[in-house]
Amino acid sequence: TEKMERVWGKYESASNFEDNFYAPVRRAGKWGIINKNEVEVAPFAFDSIVPNITRLKFDVYSNRFAGATMPHEVFKTHFLPSGHFIAKKDKQWGIISWNGQTVLPFQYDKIQDAFYNYVVVGKAGKFGVVDFAGKELVPPTYSDVKIVNDLVYVRDKGKEGLLDLQNNVIAPAIYDTIQEPLQNYIRVIKDKKIGYLNYEGKEVLPAQYDEVNFYNDNEPFITVAKNGKKGVLNNKFQLIVPCEYDSLAAESWRKYIWVKKNNLVGLLDREGKEAFAVKYQFIDNIDSYSEQPETRKMIAQLKGKWGMLDTTGRAVIPFDYDYMKADFNRLSITIGKKNKFGVLKNTGQVLIPMKYDEIGSIQYEMDIVGIKKKKKWGFANATGKETVPPTYDDAQAVQKITNESGTLIPYAIVKKGKYFGVIHAGTGKVAVPIKFDSIDYLPYATTEPITVWKDGVQSQVNFRGEAIQK
């Protein structure tokens, strides 16, 4: 900024303005402080003044004119009250206010961390905590100390522990690592095993797992691993699924916990009890919020054959098919056997007989879908009637397009020879002539244009195939 340009021109080095009020600057090898009006408010009497780098977002400036860099000994992130700075004088560290007045006496070899009115100080290679008045809260007896959310993390003889700011022991120094809090818990590592403490230091989960996937205490499941096997805890850290599975998926929005063992899969209920035995090569899962009985069904593969189960385990579609794929709502099921394909309702009712070489994609419930026979594509409806006989070389999935009266009309992009067009998939009527090199996509409404390409030229047509002038 223009202000910083002036400041850099006047001083050997300068930091940015802390909270837009004060900035440390250097002149003749000594540091002082100026205010936002560029008035010198603290004397140039300090060997170093460390900017409050949390507030500055680590944005420390150098004097680009003189090529000087800031000689600050910045050890860790500092978060001091506004208008306060860590400073060095006569080889000792202390804290000053914006006008250079001493807040914490210059009697420490190092100031390693600061959190509001609490400061981590070092003497003779050991660290402790004092307040701004210099009152010793944690004696300087530890090899490392940091403050996080009123918790004091200490390291002693290679192990970490937790204290409060009154030097009371929350957790003894027996852990290899204590991580910062997440929600209401603190992750610890001991002998390469993971556990959790609460804020009182109680082990809510002893350090016994190789992996713990804990995100927040509102989630119902915590997945864990031990000796290469997976299990599940509930959000009270109680084991509900023992660590005996090769893989699993416990997701809050699913009705079941999916598990895999010895290349076979099954489903457990949300309390960890077996709902579907681990005997399938594949089994679907369903959303926990899906309350409609007709959608609470799952496709599965058993001994190489595909079928469909309801939530009681009954096979509503027998395991008799080589191929099976459900739509998004599990209402229409594409099935295949001996390279012939058709469509069933999820009750087993035949919608399209299994006589086609391929069935197009069904996104939601079956209405009109692409059918392929003898290398040609057409369309059929939910009664099995061929609304468009297979005469096209290619056909994209049917899209429901809203017309002027709000009715959804089934259209599809088709290809014949090397050219593309658009047809009504329910009647076969051509909407856009089959004469274009490509068609980008179909819009959501018939009042919107269709982008087409011919001989490298892009243009737009409507759903009657008429050119739209730009």
Write up what this structure looks like:
The structure is a single chain. The chain has 470 residues and is mainly beta. It has one helix and 49 strands. The strands form twelve sheets. The protein has a five-stranded mixed sheet with strand order 6-10-11-12-13, with no helix packed on it. Strands 42, 43, 44, 45 and 46 form a five-stranded antiparallel sheet that branches. The protein is flat. It starts with a helix and ends in a 9-residue tail after the last strand.
* Percentage of β-strand residues: over 45%
How would you sum up the global shape? flat
Strand order of the largest sheet: 6-10-11-12-13
Mean pLDDT: 89
Annotate the secondary structure layout:
Elements: H1 2-10, E1 13-14, E2 22-27, E3 30-35, E4 40-46, E5 48-50, E6 78-79, E7 84-89, E8 92-97, E9 102-108, E10 110-115, E11 118-123, E12 126-131, E13 136-142, E14 144-148, E15 151-156, E16 159-163, E17 169-175, E18 177-178, E19 185-190, E20 193-198, E21 203-209, E22 211-213, E23 221-226, E24 229-234, E25 239-245, E26 247-249, E27 257-261, E28 264-268, E29 274-280, E30 282-283, E31 297-302, E32 305-310, E33 315-321, E34 323-326, E35 332-337, E36 340-345, E37 350-356, E38 358-359, E39 368-373, E40 376-381, E41 386-392, E42 394-395, E43 399-402, E44 408-416, E45 419-424, E46 430-436, E47 438-439, E48 450-454, E49 457-461
Parallel strand pairs: 6-10
Antiparallel strand pairs: 1-2, 2-3, 3-4, 5-7, 7-8, 8-9, 10-11, 11-12, 12-13, 14-15, 15-16, 16-17, 18-19, 19-20, 20-21, 22-23, 23-24, 24-25, 26-27, 27-28, 28-29, 30-31, 31-32, 32-33, 34-35, 35-36, 36-37, 38-39, 39-40, 40-41, 42-44, 43-44, 44-45, 45-46, 47-48, 48-49
